[in-house]
Design a protein that fits this description.
Elements (H helix, E strand, L loop, with lengths): L8 H14 L1 H8 L16 H7 L7 H13 L3 H12 L10 H11 L6
Helix pairs in contact: 1-2, 1-4, 4-5, 4-6, 5-6
Length: about 120
């Protein structure tokens, strides 16, 4: 990966998810770095400044956001997780090339259908 570019959301999401199971305080400190990735209710693959500087689009991937929502559930940040899963409810069918089983699991955890 180019060291001049910021990490992709998927990398941060996996790292926060991993840390959320080991050390929730450290994971919560990293969550604050997500502000540059955040859209309305979901997070984009790259920062807004990086996209603007390189004249590229940003994408809100279901899988990346699902991993992040799972981390939010682990960190007891249920409202943040709920915003993510709710934002994809009406449009998840266009994301069929991603693992929807993991999304369904997080959706069930957020709405209390599955015990975490």
């Amino acid at each position: 990966m180019d060291t001049l570019s910021p990490p992709y959301l998927i990398d941060i999401a996996f790292y926060i998810n991993f840390l959320s199971k080991l050390n929730s305080e450290k994971a919560k400190k990293i969550v604050r770095f997500l502000n540059d990735y955040k859209g309305d209710n979901v997070y984009y693959d790259v920062t807004l400044s990086f996209a603007n500087e390189n004249l590229i689009g940003r994408y809100a991937f279901l899988y990346d956001n699902t991993i992040l929502a799972e981390a939010f559930v682990n960190l007891k940040m249920t409202e943040e997780a709920k915003k993510i899963v709710d934002s994809f409810l009406d449009s998840y069918s266009i994301y069929t090339y991603f693992n929807q089983a993991r999304y369904a699991l997080v959706l069930g955890e957020v709405y209390g259908l599955f015990a975490h």
